[in-house]
Amino acid sequence: MPHFPEEILEQIFSYITHCRDRNALSLVSKTWYDLDRRTRHSVFIGNCYALAPERSIKRFPNWVVGLARDCPDLRELRLKRMLVSDPTLLLISGSFPNFRSLALIGCHGFSADGLSAITAKCRFLEHLDLQESEAGNDSGQWLSSFPESFTSLISLNFGSLRGAVNLDDLMSLVARCPNLKNLRVNKAVPLLTLPQILLRAPQLVELGIEPRAHHVDPGSHTRLYEAIRKCKSIQSLSLSGALHIALSCQFHISAIFPKLISLDIISVMEGRILGFINLLTHCHKLQRLRV
């Protein structure tokens, strides 16, 4: 095999992004192993309990400290069902200048302070997914930490957080991110405010509404679904918290459902089964249904 300088190999490695391909390359030689270690943008571990942490730390020394030292170009980190502290989020925010994606799935141990570090310092952030995660001391002020010049957000999911939300900060963030495609808000965002948010993001492709009280002014239902209808690109809709609204506004939302590829509706009450079935008759392109 011809000998290539490490600089050239690094350029070649930069075009190989799939974890399985990377794993195969790392087995070729010690040099390639070291190159893979230094140039990785992401690490996938399907089951963190099936792998000894010492082995991963040896290859990628210390989950965050080691990555900060040896993988400065890391751009994406996905953690699932793990304890994540504020100092860890603070270190992430200050160690990776090109960091773009953070997913904390079912994680706990962090607070609004840790989230504020991410939103304030990760200036190229595109994806922030807090699915099923819990934040202690969640004042909702982390939304205000996004710089006013920040415009890169593509996906934002904070549906599981329980804290209050500064609605002005949320609307301002949505309005200045023209590439925002995926938005899932928590139940602290009132239905009265959702139409104002959606009108600032007509480019949305995915929308999620978390469970909330059923006693809401019917006029709010109509305004909400009129706003959703103006989001011409909607393909995925989660109405887990608003099925009762959907069923009461079928006339207004009938134009939405023929475009849907994914529909998420949980906890369908027995008395509303017929209405739910009627909704499905409009979903001609549906590929994924969660009930």
UniProtKB/TrEMBL annotation:
Gene3D superfamilies: 1.20.1280.50, Ribonuclease Inhibitor. Transmembrane segments: none annotated. Pfam families: F-box_5 (PF18511). InterPro entries: COI1_F-box, F-box-like_dom_sf, F-box_dom, LRR_dom_sf. Residues 4-45 form the F-box domain. GO terms for biological process: SCF-dependent proteasomal ubiquitin-dependent protein catabolic process. It comes from the Eukaryota. GO terms for cellular component: SCF ubiquitin ligase complex. This is Auxin signaling F-box 2. It comes from Actinidia rufa.
